[in-house]
Request: fold
Amino acid sequence: MSREQLAVQRARRSFQTGRTRPLDFRIQQLRRLQSFIKERQRNIKDALQTDLGKSERASELYEILVVEAELHLSITRLAEWAAPRPVEKNLFTLLDEVYVKPEPLGVVLIIGPWNYPWSLTLLPLVGAIAAGNAAILKPSEISSNSSKVIEEFLPLYLDQDLYQVVEGGVPEAQELLKQRFDHIFYTGSTAVGKLVMEAAARHLTPVTLELGGKSPCYIDKNCDVGIACRRITWAKLINCGQTCIAPDFILCEPSVLNRVVEEIKKCIKEFYADSTKTSDDYGRIINQRQFKRIMGLMEGCTIAFGGDADEAQGYIGPTVLKNVTGESKVMQEEIFGPLLPIITVNSVDEAIHFINEREKPLVLYVFSNDNKLIKKVIAETSSGALVANDCVVHFLDSALPFGGVGHSGMGRYRGRHTFDQLSNLRSCMIKQLRMEGLNSMRYPPHTAKKLSWARRFVLSRLNVQRLRNMVMFAMLASLAAFVVQVPALKRIS
Ligand code: NAD
Reply:
């Protein structure tokens, strides 16, 4: 039996003991995860520095804080999320108990990416624990230092049978994918996402695929270009552009092109004190393979500024590209690096057309002072998310379900959405063995009269809540009428 097979078997057996059902147990495990993050912060930050050149503060801001917030939210709201959810009643269910009860799915496989090796591996784990599942974690082998720290220290904090870490690369991931899981939560590229889904289909396992793609950013000429470029530059250069929701390319009218370039240049100076190469806040490209791929994407474009690089250090400076068309090499794949191509369009309609000709993006950004224009873009395009007048920040709002559509992914998560995604939302209907006469219309022999009753019942499904509201309204109206009439009656008498 392979290591992966044994891990899944062990997790499943432990899950079957029912240990994860009580909410107290889940909260205890979530608190232990909190301790892990607090006590091992040094190891986490060192690993991120080595893997991606992330500074301590960037690691805290973009990797740790978001997991801490998710843990806090899950611990405080778990009882509410896990409680039965009553559903609307109707004529059929008037006398019944009808509700949705979230229950654990079983064993969840979480496959993580290298660009945010902590937050994007631990956020699904928080949801898996909260929902009462066992979980197998497969961190990315590419961020190898982070992966080692996860494997070495996480088991010291969590239940070792229920939550296991399998370190390794593609062969280990493939071996894991041969096993039967109750859900697979994958974050990574679209190409591998297809393989994951194919493997999952063999066991009819549901999947959440958090994938990538090219997220467009439209800048309307009717907006504060300075502020827009500040927000775009910040978002683009977090983690050296290796962010799935980074703005991939800019669309704008020719009249604002030069201003956009100048404003971005200004922001880079402001953020990185004249030198991204020596700034602690500017990261590095994960490995040589990615370095070569990103450098190759500049082919055929005009460098408006930037373009400097140092292969030995994995450094690529912020680079803005002009004279880019839909056919340019840089537009054929997700950039996932600090290159920002600008494509000129003559109107918002042309921008919308350009966006709609391509795969649906993970997120679509639009900068404008014109609310009508923003609503037009929302109405005429599709994407996992749309953010107007800012970038990336929607990921921080766990009230918003995060995920893609089409080639940018399927399934949603964050906060309660992860809990729901990794739960079986079981429909429960509890009837009484009474009032059997009401059921006669459904039993054979099926007569015309019974059918006519059934039709009336089915087609005039009365909304009980509405009925209740109507009764309540009638009572309030009578009370109001009475109160108004009392002084008048007194005057008469
Ligand atoms: P990747 O697909 O190469 O790797 C992700 C994981 O898949 C790793 O754990 C890896 O071991 C595993 N894997 C790789 N090849 C495999 C195979 N043949 N079979 C089974 N498993 C395999 O992705 P990546 O390079 O780590 O991440 C970059 C991509 O992820 C980008 O496209 C980015 O947009 C996307 N991404 C998306 C999100 C999101 O939330 N939507 C977040 C981060 C990254």
User: Anything to note?
Assistant: The first strand starts at residue 85 and ends at 86. The two ends are 95 Å apart (CA to CA).
